[in-house]
């Protein structure tokens, strides 16, 4: 199994190109199931979650062709199977995103309940309740969601809590439903907006994405289109924190600074000088140790839970005391015990991690437990004295394209080793 071996101490300096967003590409790939015509997607990141989704669509009969330059062509016309089996779904929770599109276009779907509980229970009750309100008959048995509908009907859906993939699933279901759908208390994440833009490019009528009320007028049919996936704001944030922790500087290209307000605010508080252009961000720590910061996760536009582990790592070596409050997932502090193995001084009280910055971390073998926890451990390894060996890096490959190569370009000593 592959591991990452990091020798800490290098001050990062250089330029990195940010890839397409995992959390936009995944729902958009699922939404291609709605297209009655060929779709070409560009800026699709090269990630394990993407290949898993392609395998999932491929098993349904969808024809996918990978082209040069992060492009994929998708033709759904040969589809003959409307199911998502456990063996694929268990590795990736986003596979639940095929439920809405399959039901809306083909009137049936059989999707395994997403397994595992890496960062919390993560139920999908709100996805199911919304589809039922649109007229779907749904049974949950034997670990599968079995859903049927003649044609979904538009409905007013008041979401009990803000759910990103829940909003996306219901929006995708609504675009081919009869009549109007109103999704209230919708997630406002930029990835929801990217999906809505893609749906509209296929001929859907979606308005209000990016606000908490999304209006959808169902149409009879969607057509094929060409679409470019948005930049990954979490990959962007991760590289900014890496540069800040190593007291270095970095310039990130092909990104969207306008989507990172909460993260950039915290980095400025930590002492970073930040400049932005339309599609680039430059961060410079000018050799200074970061100041600890207080972070509280919440739905967009507040601070993203997917950046929490990285800031936890930053606080470990910062000057002062910083608190990390996690309000989205009930079990998203699994990086803490591993950071402690490197010498971090962190105490967890309920949903708050209290970090006292230490002068130095010391390298040790650590184990990745989920995607962003792994990112936090890699960042800590970059500043730890000696060698850090990060195990179970399949988690990091789910969401980062060749992280070791991009960090090496910035001057880090990091390489993939097989054991
Ligand atoms: C593929 C993708 O886009 N993943 C992102 C998505 O996950 P995901 O869409 O799974 O996260 P949600 O926004 O749905 O989860 C928010 C909260 O709602 C709860 N909930 C959700 C649905 C439901 O039916 N019932 C319920 O109780 C969850 O357990 C969680 O406590 O948003 C999260 C929150 O920004 C991010 O961390 C993930 O990276
Ligand atoms: C939690 C994440 O992803 P997923 O919802 O796919 O598990 C993430 O991207 O940090």
UniProtKB/TrEMBL annotation:
- Keyword set includes Ribonucleoprotein: no
According to the lineage, what is the superkingdom?
Answer: Bacteria
According to UniProt, the reaction catalysed is: phosphoenolpyruvate + UDP-N-acetyl-alpha-D-glucosamine = UDP-N-acetyl-3-O-(1-carboxyvinyl)-alpha-D-glucosamine + phosphate
The Enolpyruvate transferase domain, residue ranges: 8-407
Q: Which residues cross the membrane?
A: none
**UniProt entry keywords in alphabetical sequence:** Cell cycle, Cell division, Cell shape, Cell wall biogenesis/degradation, Cytoplasm, Peptidoglycan synthesis, Pyruvate, Transferase
Q: Which positions does UniProt annotate for phosphoenolpyruvate binding?
A: 22-23
Positions bound to UDP-N-acetyl-alpha-D-glucosamine:
93, 306, 328
Q: Where in the cell is it found?
A: Cytoplasm
Gene Ontology cellular component? Answer: cytoplasm
Keyword match Cell division:
yes
According to UniProt, the name of this protein is UDP-N-acetylglucosamine 1-carboxyvinyltransferase
* Annotated source species: Thioflavicoccus mobilis 8321
What lineage is on file? Bacteria, Pseudomonadati, Pseudomonadota, Gammaproteobacteria, Chromatiales
């Amino acid at each position: 199994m592959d591991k990452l071996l990091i020798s800490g101490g290098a001050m990062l300096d250089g330029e990195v190109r940010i890839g397409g967003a995992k959390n936009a590409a995944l729902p958009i790939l699922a939404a291609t199931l709605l297209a009655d015509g060929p779709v070409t997607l560009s800026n699709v990141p090269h990630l394990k979650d993407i290949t898993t989704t392609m395998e999932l669509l491929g098993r349904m009969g969808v024809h996918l062709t990978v082209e040069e330059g992060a492009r994929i062509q998708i033709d759904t016309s040969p589809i003959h199977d409307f199911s998502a089996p456990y063996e694929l779904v268990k590795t990736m929770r986003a596979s639940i995103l095929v439920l809405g599109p399959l039901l809306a276009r083909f009137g049936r779907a059989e999707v395994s309940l997403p397994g595992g509980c890496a960062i919390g229970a993560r139920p999908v009750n709100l996805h199911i309740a919304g589809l039922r309100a649109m007229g779907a008959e749904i049974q949950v048995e034997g670990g599968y969601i079995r859903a049927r509908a003649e044609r979904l009907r538009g409905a007013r859906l008041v979401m009990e809590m803000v759910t990103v993939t829940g909003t996306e699933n219901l929006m995708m279901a609504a675009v081919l439903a009869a009549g109007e759908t109103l999704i209230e208390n919708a997630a406002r994440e930029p990835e929801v907006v990217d999906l809505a833009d893609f749906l509209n490019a296929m001929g859907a009528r979606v308005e209000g994405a990016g606000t908490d009320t999304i209006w959808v007028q169902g149409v009879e049919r969607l057509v094929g289109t060409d679409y470019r996936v948005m930049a990954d704001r979490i990959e962007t944030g991760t590289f900014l924190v890496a540069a800040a922790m190593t007291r270095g500087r970095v310039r990130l290209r092909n990104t969207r600074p306008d989507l990172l307000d909460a993260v950039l605010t915290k980095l400025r508080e930590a002492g970073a000088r930040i400049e932005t252009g339309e599609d680039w961000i430059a961060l410079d720590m000018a050799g200074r140790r970061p100041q600890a910061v207080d972070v509280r996760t919440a739905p967009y536009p507040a601070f993203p839970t997917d950046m929490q582990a990285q800031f936890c790592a930053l606080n470990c070596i910062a000057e002062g005391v910083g608190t990390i409050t996690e309000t989205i997932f009930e079990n998203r502090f699994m990086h803490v015990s591993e950071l402690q193995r490197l010498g971090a001084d962190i105490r967890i009280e309920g949903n708050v991690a209290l970090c006292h910055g230490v002068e130095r971390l010391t390298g040790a073998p650590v184990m990745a437990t989920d995607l962003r926890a792994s990112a936090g451990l890699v960042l800590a390894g970059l500043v730890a004295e000696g060698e850090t060996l990060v195990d179970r890096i399949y988690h990091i490959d789910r969401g980062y394209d060749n992280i070791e190569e991009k960090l090496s370009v910035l001057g880090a000593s990091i390489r993939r080793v097989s054991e």
